[in-house]
Design a protein that fits this description.
The chain has a two-stranded antiparallel sheet with strand order 1-2. The chain has 2 domains: 100 residues, Orthogonal Bundle (Multidrug-efflux Transporter Regulator, Chain: A, Domain 2), CATH 1.10.1660.10; 157 residues, no CATH class. It is built from 14 helices and 2 strands; from the N terminus they run H-H-H-H-H-H-H-H-H-H-H-H-H-E-E-H. By secondary structure, the protein is mostly helical.
Length: 263
């Protein structure tokens, strides 16, 4: 006959675990002997090992009792059900791991992979990180608000970034953010950008340049750009003087109207 400590040792568990299995009704608690101690027969070791094995395999304790007394067919069915549940839990935990990994991945926290790749492409081109941040901060609410439009908009972006004029704009914009109002580089940048927008509108149509976004979203994205880089406000004013208003949604206007409104 075995003491509770000996039973626990043979079964590879702690005394506390034995008492827990007693409390759950999984392992019968023997009567005390004349000395007041509980004594276990050898069969209790086998039963305890079965309980430990099932519990260690992820079987809920509420089902362990059922499996201990099941016939082979019932046991196989129950094990298959438990395996299916464990597989679902593993898939869920894997999704959690992916989300945790995204938390450490910067841009990918709130953005689809294709947008992250585009931002990385801008960095590879040597675009100033402040400009990349303006781009990123605009994509975050856009991707959340209209995820179905991301593939279409990213296809457009990939086509546009192949144009040397737009690459030059991105590359020069970072430097322009530090320039004074009448700096030659800033003026040249805006002239080139206005020419590029005009060419794009003539080739693709005004709606293509305008983006087709609802006004409230445009207002939000414009505000984000100004918060990230307040100096973009001067760029917007200079573009207006050259016949283009807006930032997220650019629209053609009469340049003379722009001059009048910015004076």
């Amino acid at each position: 006959m075995l003491t509770i400590g000996e039973l626990a040792s043979y079964a590879g568990v702690t005394v506390r675990a034995v008492r827990h299995y007693h409390a759950k009704g999984l392992l019968p608690e023997p009567e005390r002997d004349h000395s007041g101690y509980r004594r276990y027969d050898p069969s209790a070791v086998v039963e305890l090992i079965r309980i430990r094995t099932l519990a260690g395999a992820g079987v809920p304790l509420a089902r362990v009792r059922e499996l201990l007394h099941a016939d082979p067919a019932e046991f196989a069915t129950a094990v298959a059900d438990i395996d299916q549940r464990l597989r679902a839990e593993i898939r869920q935990r894997q999704r959690h791991r992916e989300r945790i990994a995204r938390l450490a991945a910067g841009d990918s926290l709130a953005l689809p992979t294709e947008i992250v790749e585009f931002l990385d492409h801008l960095r590879a081109l040597g675009v100033d990180e402040r400009v990349v941040e303006i781009e990123r901060d605009g994509w975050i609410p856009l991707a959340a608000h209209s995820p179905e439009r991301v593939p279409e908009l990213m296809a457009r972006k990939r086509a546009e970034i192949a144009h040397p004029q737009l690459v030059d704009f991105y590359l020069t914009l970072g430097e322009a953010l530090d320039r004074t109002d009448n700096d030659e580089m800033l003026i040249e940048l805006v002239d080139n950008m206005a020419a590029y927008l005009t060419q794009l509108a003539d080739e693709q149509g005004a709606d293509y340049v305008g983006g087709g976004f609802e006004p409230a979203l445009v207002e939000l994205l414009d505000a984000l750009a100004l918060d990230t880089a307040p100096s973009t406000r001067r760029l917007i004013e200079l573009l207006r003087q050259r016949g283009w208003v807006g930032w997220t949604r650019l629209e053609r206007v009469d340049p003379r109207q722009g001059d009048a409104e910015t004076r």
